[in-house]
Amino acid sequence: MEQFMKGLRIYFDTLLKKIPLPLGIVWILIILAIYLIYKIFTKLIEKALLKASRGDINRVKSGIRIWRILYWVIAIILLLAGTGGNLATLGLSAAFLGMVLGWSLQRPVTGVAAWFLVTLTKPFKIGDRVIIAGVIGDVQNIGIMYVTMEQVGGTTGGEEKSGRAVLIPTAVLFDQVIFNYTMREEEVQESKYILDEIIIRVAYGSNWNAAEKILISAAKEITKDIIGEIRKEPYIRAEFIDWGVYMRLRYYTRPVERQEISTNITKVIFHKFAESKEVKFAYPHSEAEITYIAKAGEKVPFHPETGK
Fold this sequence. Notes:
The chain is α+β, with helices and mostly antiparallel strands.
């Protein structure tokens, strides 16, 4: 580095001596050249950011802002060093300034680094439904300091939009597990949907085939457009419980419409169960069986069905 800065000073001295122009004009030309280089690289970086962020103007503006600061800081340091500035003094000053800024601006600097990480790797993008720091929401904006989400749920159960905006500091992204409902690439049609389930408790005396038919037909009726896109049918998974059978109806749904779709399917299932004589809902209850042995000539004190 020392040799590089020394060579830079020699180059500047030689350039200033050889150019037959007043010193002021030479410096103006040098500054114009630096500015021209800045404009050219800014255009290139802007195109790269537009491509990487898929047209997100906010990300592009934030990236250009950081590039501008870095470029001019480096340009000023090189100009000072190239025109006779003491490299050791510049190095000590830069190191001290960096230490002070790093200590006092630790969280903001971490936030900027996290923003760069999100911009480059794209673990989530605007419009995705994610869980960050335990907060569920739809991403509205990804800024340098904050990720803005429209909260889902919150004071209400389920996963419907609450209308509240939540600002998540980008600095916490390094410390949090992030869940993305639509992680896979957009060209994969299935990536727009997630697997959901509705649990129905069916009594032991019910007709299995009739119950399964009702559940599958209800899911097909409500999610027929999704089935047509991804070619994946609803299906059943089941398990025994003490007072019936858990029938888990599983189907694919849109993340932002999950609550609405599950409600519509539940409504259809409820009405069809009410109409059917072959299936019944299970509920926790107890049954008692009493055996009475009558003596010779003694009447049974009550009828086993009527209780009289």
